[in-house]
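Whether sequence alone determines local backbone shape is best considered at the level of individual chains. When preparing material for the folding task, we compiled for one chain both its residues and its backbone structure tokens. No coordinates are needed to read the tokens, only the vocabulary itself. For completeness, the protein is quoted in full, as a sequence line and a line of structure tokens:
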Amino acid sequence: MEPEVRAYLIRIVNSISIIVVWLISNTTAGIQFGYAFVEQKITAGNIIFYLWLLISTIIFIWLMIRLWKKPLNIPE
């Protein structure tokens, strides 16, 4: 396989793995544990979940920008 293609595919796989981990962690906390749903009133768990969702989204976007901005690591 060409080194350029290999480096690009590795970057794609890294992006997909970061996306999957981010999605699984947030859906597990939100849906499985019920913190995404407000029943009668807003609880501390709801506030913490939505703060975590906001912070993790910012970190996720920052990681994606950082990952795709740097040049490809192509061995000679």
Q: What stands out?
A: Residues 1-41+56-76 form one domain. The radius of gyration is 17 Å. The mean pLDDT is 93.
